[in-house]
Amino acid sequence: MEDLSDHGWTPIHHAAYRNHLSLVERLVETTGPEILEAVSDDSFQNTPVLLAALSGSQRMVTLLVNFGADVTFVNRQNQGVVEICALRGHFSLLGYFLNLRNPKLNVCRRLIALLGSDKDNEILGCCSAVFEMTSRVDDSEMDTFVAEGLVSGLINVLKNNFSDDVRKVALNLLKSTLRCKEAKRQILENEGPRILVSLMGTRSSQLLPVLMDFIGELASEKEFTEAYSANIIPALTQVISNTDHGNKEEVLLPVLKILGLLAVGSPVYKEALGRQAGLLLHLVQLFGECQSKALLVAWSDAVGCVSAENRNNQDTLIGENVGFYLHQMLKSKYKDVQTSAARSVCRLVEGNLEAQKAMMESGIAIPLIQLLKRSRSQHAQEDVAQTLWALADADAETQRSMAAKIGVSLLVEFLSSPSYKLNLIGAKGIGVLAQGPYDVKNSVASENGAHHLLRLLRSPRENVVLGAVRALRHICLGVGYVPNSRNQTAVANSKGLKILVGLMVRSPSRYIRVEAALAMAASVLGHPKNLDVLVKIPGFSYRHVIQLLRSPDEEVRVLAGAALATFAFNSRSQQREIAQSGGVHWGDFEPFLHSTNWSYRAHAAFQVVVLARIIPDVDPAYTSAAGIQMLVCLLEGSSSGDVVALAADCVARLSHTRAGVPAAMVSIDVVRMLCQHLKSPSDQVKGSAAIALSFLSFNHTAERQLLKRCREDPHLMKVLIYYNKKQKWSSNFLQRWNHIRELNVPETRSRKKSSSIHVMSKCKSHVECHFAPYPPESSMSNCDRLQNSRKESAVSGTFDIVA
After folding, report:
1. Domain that holds residue 227
2. In whole angstroms, what is the distance from residue 581 CA to residue 517 CA?
3. What pLDDT shows up at residue 748?
4. What is the value of pTM for the model shown?
């Protein structure tokens, strides 16, 4: 109150202003209560209670109110007790008037009315008073102010041309109203978003941080982003590209938050962010502005949100070298920065093979592995492990390499974690490692991996159970169906067979049922004690597997066939049990021999050879020939490393099955094809081929062919030895090879391929072979004739099989 003067004041005015309580009491007692409404004879015309409010004395105000003073009086300046307290900063006294709940004195409404003033000090006083009063009590007071029109008053302040100081205070107060649902609705309905977006063009270092922080809070509202995302995104680009703001962190933190919220809010907004010219480029370049830990984390999170599940944004960010900056963050001394970068890398490469390869080639896996092995926090381990697995998602070979880098010990540790995410990665990692040609199964046994995998079979999450049961299968059975007795025994000792039977019989998921059957088969193959335990478990029957063989799902049928073939492998007794439990038919397998999925072809080919004796509706010789023919065709004609590795694995299995099968495969040039695959860049292909050749070395013809190939190219022998350190070799083959090396026999020149082989190598369509009755000779192509000649050779080689 400007230029306050005590001229024209009566004694009660002086006493009220100067807090003389006893004098006021005597004056009221001697002259009567009407003195309480005496108006000063000056330009303000204040009453005693107004002057008491002006001095901020709550004791005097309380005394006057108790005597009956009128608190609703307004002086000549249109100011009452509410306005005076707000302008003078007497907020506790203002709270007193609010608590009076005087229906004639609407404190909230009179305060909000100040927002309509054209004077900065009145608006600032109002905002400060409301903020103070609503921050000390519960949200009910804020609800009252909002109901009286606080939101619309603040929006009008932002709309008009006030100073930055006034707008900043108004923005802060408006932001505090967001905890009230009604306030959010009013902001959206009163052109609030439009005004806020229009202010984003300001270069005020004072206003911009508050503005961006407020928009960041509002960006989580769906209605806001739906209505104004088209305007916000260009404005954000302008803010990011402007590096002249004073306190960059206060501006950039909310900007990065808004980017993340928009990206998470909808795939449409995420796509729009990618299409905005220059936005992603500026976002990447913004890394140079991020000097604090908080900014680095916010930047990384924004990159992750923008790139997640959006191929175009991923490619653009990779092209702008965002991987280099994320790599730098992984070397930070702050764990928060490292784990944030790991999460962003995961989102950047997920579902994008090119991005995965680019990031792997940059060497980003090295700091991630180091971070994983240093981390003890469960959340940090989850983030880093998921990132590593996302990077390895390109193919099984990369997954195997990544799992090897993580290590068996840490993967088994994941299995015992309370985190289902780590459980899943641990199970998958153990599974892919155990499928490889390297012998990690004993390492898993040493770490008690089977026990931890069995524990996961009780998980409520289907994907964890599936991962665990698949890993169990692989740790029990290696390439060429070489059993690992340590893990098989561990499964039985931990009552795993009983658990697996329960899953096969009662699980609501067909995939879990069939995988449980396959894991059981792997646990008992070559382990008579386990088989004796299994057949005595109540509920176990091959009928359950045979039912799955007729499932409507192709993958389930293929896996069911694999389970039956594994149970029947080198076991006439189990073949009889399968036949007596309902048996199998040619029609259960024949469609898969023509499948467009070449892995299904390999599985079916192996299955029909193993089960040939109990397939009643087709001659066993023809069945075996069909399977052998298909495996050899896949070895020669498939361009997929996974398919070739599987076909070589199936050859390795069949190489130590019933008599006649190895000879049939050797007769159609399988040794040459396997030797060719010893030069494959894929470890899985080379390993499976090498193990298959080690089994075939027991066949005299194969032995001679293999020795000849090794003389032509001694490097092949090095590969064979490398991948068969723990495999059984033909002693005769090794003796002959050592004899050749001792004599220092010179290398032989390789012959050119015969014309028939040349024809087959040129004609990739031979993989599309069918096993219907042979067509007339006149209608056959050269490839068909070659296939049939090979089939006849295979059939002739299986006569002793079915004798």
Report:
1. 191-255
2. 15
3. 54
4. 0.78
